[in-house]
Amino acid sequence: MGVIGLGARAEARCRELSRPPYSEDPNALTRTYLTPPHRAAMDRIAGWMRETGMSIREDEAATLVGRLEGTKPGSPALVFGSHIDSVRDAGCYDGPLGVMLALACVEAIAAAGRRPPFAIEIVAFGDEEGSRFQTSMNASRAFVGRLAEVKLDVRDRDGTTLADALTAFGRDPTRIASVTRERSSVLAFVEPHIEQGPVLETAGAALGVVTSIAGQWRLKVRFAGRAGHAGTTPMHLRADALAAAAEAVLAAERIATEGPADLVATVGQVAAKPGAPNVIPGHAEITIDVRAGTDPVRDEGLRQIEAAIAEIAMQRGVKVEVERVQNLPAARMDARLQGLLKRAAEKFGHAAPELVSGAGHDAMMLADFAPTAMLFIRCAGGISHNPAESVTPEDCEAALGVLLAFVDVFAAEQPE
Length: 416
Ligand SMILES: [Zn+2]
Fold this sequence. Notes:
This protein has 416 residues and is an alpha+beta fold. The protein is 34% helix and 22% strand.
């Protein structure tokens, strides 16, 4: 099989991995961390890796690592990777496509009898989505040495701790520190991933180069007004907590719409109490998710939204409490690697526009550890985290071609 077929095969392998025994659900893809489908997928992928001549190991966070030695055995590695776990009712490309494209890249290199001057590794992380335990990206956190953030005592909904799940999977959680890589063993990290948004499709581009992974603030905003009878309380004597929350929803939307293009704000949850049709809501709670490609833009968006909320509460005579529940700083991708990816794409006549990733990825964890880049692949309608997730074999061929060219331009830059 020539290079032409390998990208399409990467796409087909993602579909193969979306069915039992690689899914917990016979009718949809659900593959969560440290479950039998996770084991089955690792074994299948390890088999494909072995066929290419890679050596295989599994670290104590249950990350599968395949390695193709370069011309000098034991040399540092160019590491490709993504995740092989999924959300519930997932599409089959979010995560696995990056691993399958990396595998296709190694297959093409091995089939050509070529060896780059460095090793190539493929890592398949098992818990990017955090679908089983409340925490996500433990495997990549451990990989880069952020061990304090790896909480082994978190429990899944059946009460099983992460430590016990690792043990049952054949790993040793007491040796989790052994997962952390020597900084000098990783030359760079590249994560190919479906875009999960509509930007590339709208631009008519098969591929894109990520400039940064958006930083995120997550807020809980609680309004406290006065509950009252919906029939007997005149409008001017009310302190309606839900009406204040509704105004806050629109303020967040307006601020993000009028702000820089990469600033987005979303209210995804609304709750009102007491929640009866004939009672004025005395309490209302909303979540606000604020993201942007850089922290200054994200933080200025947050500042304006919080100021607007305070003003709304004052005008309406309700109390408000804003809790900042999550703060994920933006992760910048490496400028030199971005340039190399663009150059590799141009070799194939692909413009590969730059874009910000609004979603989080393992690459966020790697970015502070080693030079890190992401190559995005167009997906139909921007749909993701949904069985309708779709990429074309042609776009996968294009991505493979770019990854192969990237290995060449990256090799040309290495010191002798
Ligand atoms: Zn993903």
